[in-house]
Amino acid sequence: MNHRIKDIELLRGIAVLFVLFEHTRFNLFGQPSEILAFIYTHFGFWNGVDLFFAISGFVIARDLIPRLNRSDSRESFFAIAAKFWVRRAWRLWPTAWLWLALLLVATVAFKKSGIFSSLQVNLEGSLAGLLNYMNFRVMLKFGHDELGPTTPYWSLSLEEQFYLLLPLLVFVCRRRLSLVLIVLVVLQFFASRHQSLFLMLVRSDALLLGVLLAIWSKRDSYRRLEPVFLKSWKWAGFIPLVILLACLAKIGSPQYQEFRFWVGIVALISIVLVWLASYDADYLMPDNLLKRILLWVGSRSYALYLTHMPAYLMSRQIWFWIAPTDTIFDHTYNLRLALTAAVLVVLFSELNYRFIETPLRARGKRIADRMGQSRLQLQT
C-alpha cells in the first residue's frame, strides 16, 4: 500500500505556504509595507510550485511505475494506466471545476467592485482550467492581457499534461526510462529558461527528478546512501531543512532572474529535500506541535491551492463593503486583509477537503477498482 510519509506531507505544507505567500503580492495586498516590500524584493516563493512538482513526481511514480512494470501484456499495461488516469481525474478535476464555477459566480455577484476581474477574463480562464491548458494561456497573454484569478491553475494544467504522458513514456522506453529521464533533466538544466516563457511554463525537471528518485528508491544504493547520521540528534534534520528552504527562498528572488541555471538549481534543491524526506524516518523534523500544524497544512495542500485566490479576493471584497467609499487600501489595511484572508483560507480549505475532495477521491477509487474487477471477470 502506498502509505503517506510524514516528512513528505511536511514538505507539502511548506510548499503550499510558499505559494500562498507569493500570491499575496497584488492579489491580497494593494500596497506592501516596508517589510513586505523588502521580502518581495530579496526573496521569492514562487518555487514552492517546483517543490510540489518534485514531491508529486516521487509520490506518484513510486507506486505507478512498479505496477506498470509488473504488467504482462499491452492490455494490462494500459488497464493500469487507465485506472491511474481515472483516479487522478476524480481526485482533482471536479474540485477544480467547482472553484472555477464559484469564481465565475463571484465575478457576476460582485461586479461593482471589480475585485474578481471581468466576466470575459474569468470565462477564458475557466475554460483553460477546465481543459488543462492554463499554462499555454498564460504563455500567450502574459505581459499584455489581464490573466485573472484563475492563473494559478497553470501548474495543475502542467501536472495533468505530464501525467497523461508519463505512462506512455514508460511504455515506450521501458528499461531505458531512467536514461531518457536523465537526458530530459540535463537538457532543461542547461536551457536558458529566464529568456523563455514557454520553457518556464512547461518546465518538468522537478517532476522528472521526483520520478527518478522514485525509481532509485527501489535499489540497494538508495538504502546505502541513507543519511542515518541525522538520527544522531533529534533536531539534526531541522538544520538542512532550514538551510535548504532559505536557499530556495533566496534564489527565488527577482535578483537572480538572469542567472541561466536559476530554475535548474531550484529543482535540485527541491529534490534534495524530497530525498531526505523519502526515507520516512522523520529526518527533517521530529514530532512536535509545529510539525503537526504543517502536516495538517500538507494534508489540505490541494484544497489550499484551489481556495487561496478566492479567499484573498473575498477578503478584499469584505473590506470593500466595510470601508468608507473611495477608501484607498494602502499598507495600513494589510493586517486586516491578512487576518480576514487567513480565516477564509482555513474555512474554505477545510470545507473543501472534508465534503468535496475526500468523497470524490473515494468515489474515483471505487470506480477504478470496479474497472479492475470488470477486466478480471472478462478474462475468466
Describe this structure in words.
The chain is mostly helical and about 375 residues long. It has one domain. About 70% of the residues lie in helices and about 0% in strands. Helix 1 packs antiparallel against helix 14 and helix 5 runs parallel beside helix 16.
Order of helices and strands: HHHHHHHHHHHHHHHHH
Largest pleated sheet: none
Taking the alpha carbons of the first and last residues, their distance comes to 26 Å
Number of domains: 1
Put simply, the count of helices is: 17
Number of DSSP strand runs: 0
Low-confidence stretches: none
Helical content stands at over 70%
Q: Nearest-angstrom radius of gyration?
A: 21 Å
Please state roughly what percent of the residues sit in beta strands, choosing from under 5%, 5-15%, 15-25%, 25-35%, 35-45% or over 45%.
under 5%
Write the layout of secondary structure elements.
Layout: H1 6-22, H2 24-27, H3 34-42, H4 48-69, H5 74-109, H6 119-130, H7 134-141, H8 153-173, H9 177-189, H10 197-201, H11 205-216, H12 220-224, H13 238-251, H14 262-278, H15 289-299, H16 301-322, H17 334-379
What attributes does this structure have?
380 residues, mainly alpha, 17 helices, 72% helix
